[in-house]
Amino acid sequence: MQAVSKARLQIHFCVLLWGFTAILGKQITLGALPLVWWRMLLVSAALLMLPRVRRGLRAMSSRLRWSYAGIGLLVSLHWLTFYAAIKLSNASVGATCIALGPVFLAFVEPWIAGRRFDTRELLIGIAVVPGVAMVVGGVPADMRLGIAVGVLSALFVALFSACNKRLVEHAEPLTVTALELGTGTLLLTALAPLLPHQGAAFVLPGAHDAVLLLVLAFGCTLLPFALALVALRHLSAFGTQMVTNLEPVYAIVLAMLWFGEQRVLDGWFYAGVAVILAAVFVHPLLHRVQRSPENSELLGTAESHNIVE
After folding, report:
1. Range of the structural domain that residue 127 is part of
2. What's the distance, CA 69 to chain centroid?
């Protein structure tokens, strides 16, 4: 199997696992801030127990270490706004807002990754906007604030995806994951007194929440986060994000099974999801016409070479 095809399969598997994050986020009774804090703390602490990760951190240059730490700040802000959007609306709506990521990435990735601006990527990204607009029209008015926060989350995911693409070749994925999530944990700890929350900022979860947090941290965070970094070596950040737009589909199906959310979503919502799906599947077809798989693989891996000395 060619590296690019394997990477696409890896991303699809990651997206399937990520589809459960919205469901778990809705089931966990903690607020968005403590939920994300525990998620990042559990993963980073577990990784720091591995000797290979500690060796990787020691071997990393100071400049590269600070670069990954900066990306970790963006990751934490993305997750914080993502779960806030779910708490303010529902799992289906919160996940669907992430579909706006490619619109932001069409502008951000060429600038950060140092490649040409691709007009087709912008057009495909814009094609998602009517779908998201239909989704907005298909939800109750009291969920609109959740949508606004979800759009902000999509901007953060675009920024950290493009930055990870720029640096992905320069460190081992588990080491990068530990550094980024560890830094994100520190940021949330520092911001906690400034962010709105009910009661104590960080609370010890009950037995029910603790089990779900472990599943969220290791099954839906550690595994797909590290695997996605590996796959990103052979794919553009934009292409990866287009596949990630399937996450709302998984989340919506799961939300129907778990929460019966179809009772509060009308036909416009599902029409919007159909538009988003169409854009997801059109993107790889256009790239297949433009260049052969061999050239695609070379482009995907070449973008991140010689960026950081």
Report:
1. 3-196+205-302
2. 17
